[in-house]
Amino acid sequence: MLVDTFGRTATDLRVSLTDRCNLRCSYCMPPEGLDWLPKPELLTDDEVVRLVTLGVRDLGVTEVRYTGGEPLLRRGLADIVRRTAELSPRPQISLTTNGIGLDRLAAPLAAAGLDRVNVSLDTLDRATFRRLAHRDRLGDVLKGLAAAQAAGLAPVKVNAVLMRGVNDHEAVPLLRFCLDHGYRLRFIEQMPLDAQHGWTRSGMVTADEILDRLSAAFALAPDAAHDRGSAPAESFTVDGGPATVGVIGSVTRPFCGACDRVRLTADGQVRNCLFATEESNLRDALRGGADDAELADRWRKAVLRKRAGHGIDDPSFLQPARPMSAIGG
Q1: With contact defined as beta carbons under 8 Å apart, do 236 and 250 qualify?
Q2: Among 102, 211, 213, 241, which residue has the least CB neighbours within 10 Å?
Q3: How far apart are the first and last CA of the chain?
Q4: Does 228 score more than 60 pLDDT?
Q5: Measured between alpha carbons, how far is residue 13 from residues 67, 114, 125, 169, 218 in Å?
Q6: In the chain, count of helices (H) and strands (E)?
Q7: Residue-wise DSSP of 227-250
Q8: How far apart are CA 237 and CA 253, in angstroms?
C-alpha cells in the first residue's frame, strides 16, 4: 500500500497524459501558452499502462483519473482506458477534461470502459468564456457535456472556478444550468497554480462567499446522506434534494488530513500534492530496466514523504514551479 507517515493511504491515482491544452485559461497559463514538454520526455502509452497496472495490482490503487493539460489531446487515450478497464481488480476510471472534442469521443471512451467525466465550465456567457480561456469554444464544451450524458458517463460532474470581477456573478446561473440538465456542479476555489504566479488571496472567491451567493437563491443544507470521507468537495442538498452542489475549499477549508490522492505527471514523476515542491522520478528507473518490485519500492518511498498539508497559509509557502497544466489537474 501507498502509506505516508501520517497514516493516510493513497488509493486515488491521478495520471496526467499531457501538459498540452487547447485553451488558455487565465488561472492556469498565459494567452501565448507555455513551452510544452518534449515528446521523448513523456511516458509512452505502454509506460503509462505499466505504472497504472503496478499501482492497481500491487499498491492498492482503486481509482484512476486521467488528466492533463487536456487528456483528450492524447491520441492513445481510448486504448489506455481500455487497458486500464481490463485490470484486475478493476479500478474506477474517470477523466478530467475541458470538454472540447468530448462530443466525438464520449461514446468511444464509454465503450472502452470510462466510468465518468469531470468537465470544466466556468461561465455560460460566450464573451466571458473568450476572456477567460482566450478561445471561442463555449459551444464545443456544451456539446461535450451533452454527449457525455448521452453516453452514460454519469454522474457528469461540472467543475467551476469563480474569479472576482470576471465570473463571480454566475454562481447561481451555473447551478440552475446544471440542475436543469442533470449535471452535478462543484465550485472550486482558485488555487496558486497559474504559470504567471499572479494568484492573490484577495482575488480568490472563497467557499464562504460561494455559499452565500447560492444561499440567496436556493435552500442549501449539508448532505447528510453521503459521508464526505476523503472527497475534496463538501456536498450540500439544493432545495431539499435530491440534487446536490459541491464546494471545494482547497485554500480556506483544506482537507489534507483525509487526502487519499497521489499524482503521476506526464513525464513520469510521482507528486504527493498539487502544491508539492518535490518529485520522485519513476520514468528514468522504468527506462533504466527497473523491475516491478523496484518501481513499487520507489513509489512507496515517495509517498512515505508526503507532507501533512499543502501549507498555503504558512509564511514559508512557495508556489510550485510547475503550473497546473504540467502537474495534472
Answers
A1: no
A2: 241
A3: 23
A4: yes
A5: 10, 15, 33, 34, 34
A6: 10, 12
A7: --TT-SSEEEEETTSS-EEEEE-T
A8: 19
